[in-house]
Amino acid sequence: MRSLIPAVLREERQFARYFYGQALSMVGDRISFVIMPFAVLSIPGADAADVGLVSAATLVPFLVFALAGGVWADRLPRQRVMLVSDLVRFVSQAMVAVLLLTGAARISHLVVLMAVFGTADAFFAPAAGGLMPLIVGPERLQEANALRGLVMSTGLVAGPALAGGLIFLVGPGGAIALDALSFAVSAAFLARLRPRAADPADAPRGGFLAQLREGFTEVMSRTWVWSTLAALSVYHVVVLPSVFVLGPVLSAQEFGGAAAWSVVVAAFGVGSVVGDVIALRVRIGRPLVIAAAALAVASCQALIIGAGPTIPVIAALEAVTGVAVALAFTMWETSLQANVPQAALSRVSSYDYLLTAGLMPLGLAVAGPIAQEIGLRPTLYGMTLLGVPAALALLAVPAVRRMRAPEPVAQPVPAPAPVAA
Length: 421
Hints:
Helices cover 80% and strands 0% of the residues. By secondary structure, it is mostly helical. It folds into two domains: 1-192, Growth Hormone, Chain: A (Up-down Bundle); 207-406, Up-down Bundle (Growth Hormone, Chain: A). Helix 2 (13-41) runs antiparallel to helix 5 and helix 4 (78-102) packs across helix 6. The longest helix has 51 residues, at 141-191. It is globular and about 55 Å long.
């Protein structure tokens, strides 16, 4: 049984504490993502536009606060920033749940509360990225990131089913209340966390604006960082709308609607699980080379959706891209944590969140109008023509090709037992 537990959980006690608290919270987030639209629509008079408004209220704070979150996560103990964020999100979700359960919820209430939630999320994410090297040895970073990814991928597969069951049993309000409870559990684990102390000599100096500029300098001084961020931005802004916007539209027009599309989403989730298991079990010596190749495969999603003749074919190929996505992001996160100075890691990570999660709504907003103008399939093909070369261009960057994973730490050989006379 012990051998079934990943080594990083057995050997890294602080990471284990962090992981067990985060696992429930991450699954709760996946469930909440599915439930929130139904929570909005449960309000009398609400429509699809209101669903979009509440979703935007959650995502827009990343654009506004991601960089500030990175600065404060480098200025303050990251564990403390994450703890406060969890408590704010607990209160926010609990208030949403109470309003829904009592029938007092209005769209304006949800917009305000989800904006608070999104703001706290924008501070949590850079702090979490910076905390990882303080609770995991460098040789275990890939395993730790893969294990976190495995939980998120499992939530992607199981989340819709769990969400449907919770809506049936306790309604949207009750389901949101359970998500709120997951943040309280995460906060309890974070309060018990004892990360390694950062070197005081590396502490950021100067005011907020000076540290903000320093974070930008840290990004731009590393070719492998800004070039990978550029490729990831293309993926999020150009390629992902094929999955979130155009894929469902095409499915509704030609493949039978939501039920058929759910097969594609589930297949992608299964592929992601497989990719995370590979990253958990296989040590990869050149992480950014694998990340670039995997991102190129992942960027074929638009082509797959547009050219796939049937849902089973699309689903099978989307499972392959799910493997690629899991590998790409695990290798990228591990490279950041292992090679960016600890004192600047959260600020550098904040650019990742700003240029991916923060800018993705832009792509979601323009994908539909472009498809209406030039056609659904030409738009999907064009997405791939932009996404794949952007990913492959990373392989032309010498710093990307030279990047090596941290070498495993040699374990001391025990001294032989003395021989009895």
